[in-house]
Design brief:
The complex is a heterodimer of chains A (510) and B (125).
Chain A (H helix, E strand, L loop, with lengths): L15 H19 L2 H25 L5 E3 L4 E3 L1 H22 L20 H8 L6 H17 L3 H19 L6 H33 L4 H10 L4 H19 L7 H8 L2 H26 L4 H24 L4 H21 L3 H25 L2 E3 L2 E2 L9 H4 L1 H15 L5 H15 L3 H27 L8 E2 L4 H19 L2 H10 L5
Antiparallel strand pairs in A: 1-2, 3-4, 3-5
Helix pairs in contact in A: 1-2, 1-5, 2-3, 3-5, 3-11, 3-14, 3-19, 3-20, 5-6, 5-11, 6-7, 6-11, 7-8, 7-9, 7-10, 9-11, 10-11, 10-13, 11-13, 11-14, 12-13, 12-18, 13-14, 13-17, 13-18, 14-16, 14-17, 14-19, 14-20, 16-18, 16-19, 17-18, 17-19
Chain B lengths: L8 H24 L33 H23 L6 H24 L7
Helix pairs in contact in B: 2-3
The chains are: A mainly alpha (510), B mainly alpha (125).
Chain lengths: 510, 125
């Protein structure tokens, strides 16, 4: 074999955010191995925060870049950079929540999640300081998400999918309190996630069979020219989209979400809700807009039905919930439906509205979970709705932040939620998808009820014996709360800059 | 045995034979077995070669075997890529870049071994 081998050209600057994230994650493993235990948490947290901020800086410096690099496997274009930026901003807030140790002595995580629940060793680790492996895991996951958004061939996308999922499965099992449902969450998420990955991989294989390539642009070209049976292409599209919709928690692929959101440690739930959503929709946008755009007339009605179903299922089931984490899980399902409405308004406006929605939703949900991590009794967090009655009288400041966040999720004007909903609905109207807007408005009205019920319970009920106490937020959670509340209000009052940024960024490079 | 689907005829026959075998076995079982609709004590217990069953029927795998899986994955992944690399890295066009890239790859995997070593996973207890 003497074929001349050509090294693929790599634009190191364009992939510098990814390199920083993976580099810090690898360093994190070394820190686990060599830094003495008492110093580890501070080193890990500091390093992770610096790494994510540096990657964010690199993304900002790259603004306006449009290249395909690393042998055609990574695309750095407007949408990739915008969503990587959003992802990393959420990552900073989530890391602040993960690093918090003031609220729960020893942190929210245990060291050995696989120990049998209730055994002697398990009771011993309940009071021991938690492990810090969660930081490198979160960094690997973040790196995988950043790559997932920018992947321009299906194989790279699959590797990124596994890279972001595997650490998430592990982190779900780490909760210090309520160990059993935490393990259950991890196992459920892992099994269903493995199924979804399998679907995705089958789709990749069929797409390869049809187009002779896994490259998104090559698939786009093959849609017109390939001599193969088009059934292959439709099956590929369906399987790939199913794999991605699972990650976004769209109905009917949503059943894992409530159990996993409830069982996972709250900082990890926040991380999942904000960051995984961005990553999954980033990949979904890229696959549908870059590879399968010519089939838009075929997939629009199908994904449209899924979007309507997702919004309605999420909204209706959220009304029946009595547990706040489950309520937010169903709300995240409904919100996935709203983002899908933006995705379905195929075009620049649709993509930019979906991206803006993801930003507004992410900050709101991070703020909501930050508050949930503060409301506790002796057994840990109290997420039952009835325990929140009268909290507003006891700790007006944090309850006020939670109110703002809930109003934003409900889509009340002057919050980010309203601007975001307005953006996706008007984008859908522009392309004549009125039926999606009708379903969207109806489900927004339905889902406003559970949010407002929480607000009313907090402020209008008298505090009683069963009212939980609000732990004073430490510096880290306090900062996270502040960022979340500021962003939610800011995106509602002056959404212009971010809307413009999203609009400028919303052109996919093929 | 002609045409596009002809080559699948054997598979079809095999499937058919499988279904028939299963149906025959279960049918024979149903015909031969005595019918005792009542629920005498011990009927639903696990059957253990005539002995009384000992212990529960749930067993837990030892979690510490993850160490074997962990180390196996590290070395297996390394070997899977090292062998094809070793065959071609001296060919024209590869040169120093190929060596450096493999060095980075092995280095990243070595992180895993370092971690295992420092966590005293390599010591048998």
């Amino acid at each position: 074999m003497t074929t001349d081998f050509q090294l693929p050209a790599i634009d190191y600057q364009a992939i510098s955010p990814l390199l920083i994230l993976f580099g810090v994650a690898c360093l994190g493993v070394l820190v686990e191995a060599f830094v003495p235990r008492p110093a580890r948490r501070r080193v890990q947290l500091g390093m992770a925060l610096v790494g994510v901020l540096a990657a964010l800086g690199a993304v900002v410096l790259l603004a306006g870049t449009n290249v395909v690099t690393a042998g055609g496997s990574v695309t750095v274009d407007g949408p990739a950079l915008f969503m990587q930026g959003a992802l990393l901003a959420f990552g900073v807030v989530a890391l602040l929540l993960i690093g918090e140790r003031r609220v729960e002595p020893g942190g929210a995580f245990v060291a050995q999640p696989a120990i049998t629940v209730g055994s002697e060793a398990d009771q011993r680790q309940a009071s021991a300081p938690g492990a810090t492996e969660v930081f490198p895991l979160a960094m690997f996951s973040l790196g995988g998400m950043a790559l997932f958004i920018a992947a321009s061939d299906l194989l790279t996308m699959f590797i990124a999918l596994e890279l972001l999922s595997l650490p998430l499965y592990l982190m779900c099992a780490l909760a210090r309190r309520h160990r059993l449902i935490s393990q259950e969450a991890a196992v459920k998420y892992f099994l269903l996630g493995a199924y979804a990955s399998g679907f995705f991989l089958f789709g990749v294989v069929l797409a390869y069979g049809y187009a002779g390539s896994v490259d998104l642009a090559a698939i786009h070209a093959a849609v017109d020219t390939s001599q193969m049976n088009p059934a292959l292409l439709y099956a590929a599209l369906a399987l790939i989209v199913m794999g991605l919709l699972f990650k976004t928690a769209a109905a009917p692929f949503h059943v894992w979400a409530p159990d996993v959101y409830q069982g996972a440690p709250t900082p990890i739930t926040a991380f999942m809700a904000a960051c995984t959503k961005v990553a999954a929709f980033g990949a979904l946008l890229r696959v549908t807009y870059v590879a399968f755009e010519r089939l838009a007339w075929d997939w629009l009605p199908v994904i449209g039905v899924i979007a309507v179903l997702t919004m309605l299922v999420g909204a209706v089931l959220a009304v029946t919930q009595t547990d706040l984490k489950r309520l937010l899980a169903y709300s995240s399902i409904a919100n996935a439906g709203f983002v899908l409405v933006g995705v379905l308004a195929v075009g620049r406006t649709g993509a930019s509205s979906a991206m803006f929605y993801l930003v507004a939703y992410g900050f709101a949900v991070l703020g909501a979970f930050a508050v949930i991590s503060l409301v506790r009794d002796r057994e840990g967090e109290t997420t039952h709705l009835s325990r929140w009655a009268g909290l507003g009288r006891r700790s007006p400041l944090v309850a006020g932040v939670f109110t703002v966040v809930m109003l934003a999720l409900a889509g009340i004007p002057l919050t980010g939620g309203f601007t975001a909903k307005f953006a996706v609905f008007s984008a859908a109207l522009e392309v004549g998808e009125g039926w999606l807007v009708i379903a969207g408005v109806v489900s927004s009205v339905i889902i406003a009820f559970p949010y407002l019920r929480v607000v009313v319970m907090m402020w209008l009920s008298e505090p009683s014996e069963s009212t939980a106490t609000m732990v004073a937020p430490g510096l880290l959670t306090g900062t996270a709360l502040g960022i979340g509340a500021l962003a939610v209000v800011g995106l509602g009052v002056v959404p212009g800059p971010v809307l413009d940024l999203a609009h400028d960024a919303a052109l996919f490079l093929r | 045995m002609e045409g596009y689907l002809g080559s699948y005829a054997t598979l079809g026959l095999l499937l058919l034979a499988g279904v028939l075998f299963l149906a025959a076995a279960f049918g024979a079982n149903r015909l031969l077995r005595p019918a005792r609709p009542a629920n005498p004590p011990g009927k639903t217990e696990a059957y253990e070669c005539g002995l009384d069953p000992v212990g529960g029927d749930w067993a837990q795998a030892q979690i510490r075997y993850y160490v074997y899986a962990y180390l196996f994955v590290i070395f297996a992944v390394e070997a899977v890529f090292l062998f094809p690399w070793a065959v071609i890295y001296a060919d024209p066009g590869f040169g120093i870049a190929a060596v450096v890239e493999m060095g980075i790859f092995v280095g990243v995997l070595a992180l895993g071994i370092l971690y295992a070593w420092r966590r005293r996973v390599l010591r048998w207890t």
